[in-house]
Amino acid sequence: MNPSELKDFLDLKSAQYNTRDFIALDPISVPHRYNRKEDIEIAGFLAASIAWGNRKIITKNGHRMMDLLGNSPFDYVMNHSEVQLENLDDFVHRTFNGTDFKHFILALKHIYAFKGGLENIFIQHQTESSLQDAIHQLNQIFFEIPHLPRTQKHIADPWKGSVAKRLNMWLRWMCRKDNNGVDFGIWNIAPSKLSCPLDVHSGNVARKLGLLNRTQNDTKALNELDNSLRALDPNDPVKYDFALFGLGIFEGF
Q1: Cα–Cα distance between 76 and 83 in angstroms, integer?
Q2: C-alpha angle with apex 67: 65 to 73, nearest 5 degrees?
Q3: What pTM value is reported for the model?
Q4: Which of 34, 42, 117, 246 is buried most, with the most CB atoms less than 10 Å from its CB?
Q5: At 200, which helix (H) or strand (E)?
């Protein structure tokens, strides 16, 4: 395909999968339980943080997280008791366990109480064209309070070469307003600064389409893919995440 044909193809596939039908079996269904901004942010952040492995199990465990938080994530974060925090001990999703869950709650309280909230971190630390430095700052702030070393692996850091797939997915949810009822677009950050969530599936599809040449999924690959997608649509490049995901997962492209 020439560049024009490739854009038409990806636009078509993005529109095909960027619909409300996408929500029910996806982790984004977890923040869709809520209307309050802070509840959406926190529910989305927690669900995205465990988004590796089987999609159905991820979604199920994301909803279980909300049930453990009394279906009021922001209120729980800000007002939980020690006894309530101990109720998270038995939660497990792959290598993310109750110890990690409890630190996430305490770190989120620290962020909302002393850092102006999650959105404020990204507004303060965004660059002209990217949110990757802001993800690094989130990582630093998240572990300002006492924590066990084991929990650090659950918050990616682009400065250490990570593609931060789960956090970039969450940022898509928060910043991108798609008018189709999938992504929320509740943050005052331009979608043009978003990076595509890069994983094995999206990377393989991107390579087959000529959007990505680098064979390793790292920050250099993420930058290359970002440049390719921004050339197709500089204002809304990560709409193509729907196309890459759908082609890889549903169509075996």
Answers
A1: 12
A2: 70
A3: 0.96
A4: 42
A5: helix 200-208
